[in-house]
Amino acid sequence: MSATADHAETNLAVRLGFQPDQVVQEIGYDDDVDQELREVIEETIGSELVDEDYDDVADAVVLWFREDDGDLTDALVDAIAYIEEGGAILLLTPKTGRDGYVEPSEIGEAATTAGLSATKSINAGKDWNGSRLLTPKGAAKKR
Could you give the angle at the alpha carbon of 139 between the alpha carbons of 137 and 143, nearest 5°? Predict the structure, then answer.
């Protein structure tokens, strides 16, 4: 196996579908986010994550969401507006037993209601679980 292929299998950001030169918008940043995961994503895409004030369309969105952040369906619908047609949302929620934990059933229901399909769930760090959600082609709106 080549060093590049080996790196791709061990790099969480690559396994989650991030690629070099993508524009990735981050929503819901706070003091509790996983800085290591952010750094791995930035290293993989070759630039910093853009924040909520970014006014163009991104290739993907990283959405940090906690139980007390409001309505998950609304947050997902809002995130769809930020991404390219067929883009992905990485929904990051606190793990079981952590402050802000979100039930998997709520994630599934919110994703379905927002018109997203879940492709994989992954351990995204010490305190966070990740769900990779895809928009259907044609669903995203250009801003």
Answer: 120
Residue ranges of the chain whose pLDDT lies below 70: 1-10, 137-143
**Neighbour-count burial of 67, counting CB atoms closer than 10 A to its CB (0-12 exposed, 13-18 middle, 19+ buried):** middle
User: How do the residues of the chain divide into helix, strand and coil, expressed in percent and rounded to 5?
Assistant: 30, 25, 40
Question: What is the distance between the alpha carbons of residues 127 and 115, in angstroms, rounded to a whole number?
Answer: 27
Cα(47)–Cα(39) distance, integer angstroms: 10
Q: How far apart are CA 120 and CA 27, in angstroms?
A: 20
Confidence (pTM): 0.87
Are the beta carbons of 96 and 123 closer than 8 angstroms? no
pLDDT of residue 17: 87
CB neighbours of residue 91 within 10 Å: 29
